[in-house]
Amino acid sequence: MRSADDTRWFMEQVEREQSRLRAFVRSLGIRAEAVDDLAQDAFIVAYERLDDFRRTDDFGAWVRGIARRLVANAMRKDSRRRQILSDHMTELLLAAASEELHPLAETAADDRLAALRSCLEKVPDAARQLLHLRYFDELSPGVIAGRIERSAGDVRQQLFRLRRGLLQCIERRLAPAAAGESA
Amino acid sequence: MNPREPWEAPAARWLDGEPEPGDGELLADAVRRDPMLLRELSGLSALDDLLRQNADPTADGFADSLAERLAADTDRSFARRVEQSLPGRSPVRRSRYAAIGAVAAIAVGIGLSAFFLRGGRQPEVATVLLAEQCEWDEPSLVTEGERLAAGVLHLRQGLAVLRCDGGAELILRGDTRIALLSAGRARLVQGEVTVRAPEEAAGFKLLTPAGEMLDLGTEFAAKVETSGATELHVLEGEVAYGSAASGGGTVLGAGKAVRFDGPTTVTPREVAIDARRFDEILRAARPATRADLMLAYEGFSYRAGRLPFAEASGGLGWRGPWRDAGKHEAYREVEISLPDLNIVHDGTSFPRPLPNLQPGMLEVPPGTTSLARTLERPIALDKDGVCYFSFIVREPDAEADWQFGGVRLVFRSSADPADDMLSFGPTRKRVPGIRIGNGPNFTSPVVIAKNQNTLWIGKIIARRNGDDDVFFSVYGERDALDYAEPAVWQVATRGVQRDGRLDLVVIAGQLNAACAVDEIRIGPTWRSVAPVQTYTEAP
Q: Which residues share a beta bridge with B344?
């Protein structure tokens, strides 16, 4: 049994890392609805293996490594494959080196959220309303389409482009120098 | 990038969780041709999660849920299974939910559970309304009236009713294990729970091995077997259910029931509804007044007339008789000294019969007076605990006068009577109020009626660490009293921290005409001090 101090320390790490871990798990092609479960599984394994971890090391990187292996394992299990959107894509995402993936998932949570909120302020009202329906009201593109009398494909397409624009905006905010070089 | 690229529509579907057959291959081919696309798609996925986090910034939900799982998993069997299932180890065929089902067999009584259940970091999310013949597994030992932090409860036997702070009420019947995750969310690990969520509490979520059950303002029962098989019975209104993996979102109406035969079952089968209504279960439990639990009682059942203090030693739970309050015990600085008590038998009785009510009331004379009596067992504010009191007051139909505040019931410490004091009663504006020591007053907008009997009920939640909470309500003759405390009290304190031991009960009067008081009850639960009838008298 872990001591209260160990547990307290561990939960502090959870609070600090959970946002990043969730984004990381999602970026491996996991269904949004399954992200929390998988991220929690990773933390539970980390808690079990806490004796193997040196506190001077990067806890976030360690638990992301555990999550990566859990996702790899999920691909081999029928009961867990539903968590994965596409085996083909997740295979590629798992095989990619860290630098081949987008750094957003590994950026500090506060920085990412601040950048996102700043970028959201620049989104036109109609587009912001669409994001609200999708993320605050948690409506599927099909349901949104019914509400605004568009096709589901149109809604998905518009959301896709909105998110691409937001991602580019966040990249500029998080790394202005790098973005300037690539522009 | 070209917006008309053929991979764009598949990518949009993939991101929104709705890929069509072939989308994955098409996207993978596109990625192989343009490795930068993989980077962008991983970034868009991370952004999708970020947008979700931005829409629901309460990180507590995740941490609470994880804490619950860790607490439930005290034998580490789940973690071992997950570890064994990692690449290079023998695969495990059971899903996480099956593992959770297996965890149902876990005793939650180890230190880890205690940390999560009782630790100061966990927010309080619910109140125990009723605990009828309950046998709890340590450390989830809970009592009526107690505030519950997020964590795991294991009710082995009996019936318990919890009210989540979001408004939903849950009936648990043993043998049931449930994890309270937040004010509006719980995970049923094993057993049976009946949920009543009034309209204002709609949106309560019950997580089960079969997925999430979302209350849409209704009543429903959920049953989870140790195998992970799960049943949902909708008693009134509608419930949306579904697993995260399957996308969820099926709505089940009243009178319908479904069963998921196992934790990996995606499509349930219809079964006959087999669950009782919330009120039926309560009536069957017949929650009654528990006067036997009282810690202190004074019914003023003395002979009528003037009663020397030496003879005023009835009731139970007291150390010595009533007395004229001393200088440091009296509520106000300048008071009239009383030579004795005056007991009246004028036929007055509270219209809501109180069990074992005996004739006799104490007359509180005009003027500014205080009578004091010492409790055998003080109300300890320096440790975790819950205490209730009730008190009957009949005030005269006198004109309001700013100097005459009425009667107050005061609990104070003989060691520090000025600071460690909780005083209950009407303010000069005739609204219920709580005064804390020489400090803040808390009041209600409700005006107390005169010329009728009123029943005062208060609750004191003491915390060794953190704020104490004190509540107070005044019930008139026509107000109904339920089997359990109200969801909303008329007066509630905020930011109070006291650590004294309240060993004195003081009846303080500031009156321009005599009034009568009766039935001081102090106990650990609502039912030990309140006349509960609603359910004992129901057909």
A: B361
Q: What is the DSSP letter of A64?
A: H
Collapsing DSSP to helix, strand or coil, B137 comes out as: coil
| Beta carbons of B467 and B290 less than 8 angstroms apart | no
**Predicted TM-score (pTM) of this structure:** 0.57
* Residues 85-104 of chain B whose Cβ lies under 8 A from any Cβ of chain A: 85-87, 91-96, 98
pLDDT in tens, A15-43: 889 889 999 999 999 988 888 888 988 99
Residue whose C-alpha is closest to residue B41's, from A124, A86, A129, A154: A86
pLDDT tens for B131-178 read: 988 998 865 568 888 888 877 888 999 999 999 988 899 999 989 988
For B86, residues 6+ apart whose C-beta sits below 8 A from its C-beta are A45, A69, A70, A73
**What is the spatial distance between Cα B124 and Cα B114, in angstroms, rounded to a whole number?**
14
Both structure tokens of B337:
């000294």
Q: Does A32 sit within 8 Å of B96, measured CB to CB? A: no
Q: How far is CA B68 from CA B71, B120, B257, B454, in A?
A: 5, 15, 28, 43
Amino acid at B285: A
Return the residue in A79, A144, A170, A171 with the most chain B beta carbons within 10 A, the one to mutate for interface testing: A79
N- to C-terminal Cα distance for chain B?
Answer: 72
Closest Cβ opposite residue A44 in set B63, B70, B115: B70
